[in-house]
Amino acid sequence: MSKEYYTTIGLEIHAELNTKSKMFCGCTNNPDEIKPNINICPVCMAHPGTLPVINKKAVESVIKVGLALGSKIANFTEFDRKNYFYPDIPKAYQISQYKYPIVSGGTLHDVEITRVHLEEDTATSKHDRGNYSLVDFNRAGVPLMELVTEPVIHSAKQAGDFGRELQIVLRYLGVSEANMEKGQMRVELNISVSSDKNVFGTKVEVKNINSFKAMERAAEYETKRMIDLLETGRGTEIVQETRGWDENKQSTFSQRAKENANDYRYFPDPDLPKLFLSKIFDIDKMKAELPELPEAKRNRYRNDYGIKDEDIESYIFDTELGSWFENVSKILIDKNKVKTASNYITSDYLGLKKLNNEIKLPKADNFAELINMVATDKISSRSAKDILAIIAISDASPEKIAEEKGLIQNHDEGALKGIVQKIILANPEVVATYKGGKENAIMSLVGQVMKESKGTANPSLVQRILKELLS
User: Fold this and answer.
1) CATH of domain 413-470
2) For 421-433, what is each residue's pLDDT tens digit?
3) Which residues of 305-338 are buried (b: 16+ CB within 10 A; e: fewer)?
4) How many CA atoms lie within 13 A of 308 on its CB side?
């Protein structure tokens, strides 16, 4: 590569809103419906003479998103007709927003937002029927939020991180499950490459992306494809177009020439009223009632608990786990104990969960009891792991389990000295190695004492006794 190239990415992200009914009619909004064409009516099927009615809850959801992003909420907004002919659009136009979106500006994850607007989703085309296709209209008319970023993203990883953060925010707000596997969240890349960081290259849009990892791979592939064209001197071959992502081939492919806004012939929908949002919603109250958002929660966890960033992300992503961790922390109070608890949760408990999805979160007081036993050297770390595996199924008292199974640590120095002396006599070579200057050799002796005591010896006390007897 003879030059340095600069990648610029803008994102268009669609998220289906989890309202009870569709955007402009009373049909059920059910993304899990298996039978085709069940949740349909004359309105969403565009029968002559039918009129749409705006779903107030959907508008409220987009306002919440705007408030969470620190955006400007429009006072005046309206819906427009976006005209194009395709089998998944029964009206031959989509009701969307063009000039007056509900939300403008804002930031998320250090990425500037252009706008967030509201529209209706399209139907689902089924192309796996041999030489013909079918259309399922259950999804047609479902409320769809579209968020557009500024072209300020410069790497595939940054794009993926932004998408993941938006997904979490939507879930915290309760406006969308944003499940990409179900198509509830769909991402499109607008990407360009240039040898001049002050000049945008030719923009290409990439669709058909079904995961954040796929989005990152698509961005990396498209960047390389464009650079290869520029490097070979065939820069004119980069055309403004829409390309699809082929997950099997791990490459993009050309779909069609990219449309411009003029191609859609936008105009205000005459069947829908203009909206003055400040007259309909109490925006200040909505802002005050927003839940604690992911970034605020991260900062609180860092300040209040001092736990690792990796642990924090586990609690941010899994809100049930995070709430449970906070309940445990309230019982433990001590910051060092809370850190110990977090280590056991994110390594040991989540490790058990991967092996057996049936296990459950123990009662907070039982788990706190387990951590207190570790902190006071009442049980060993090994015993704590074993007890955790039990209480994740039976949720009994850890202290009772430890007593029943003989896992309480032995702090009787006199009794332990006898075991230590036995191990010293049985391992003259290890003793010689230790006395020869290799201090780590003592850990082999500690391990053998622990085995001899069936895990009940306190390892710190064992180590001290060994050092005293070998000095």
Assistant:
1) 1.10.10.410
2) 888 888 888 888 8
3) bebeeebbbbbbeeeebbebbbebbebbeeeebb
4) 12
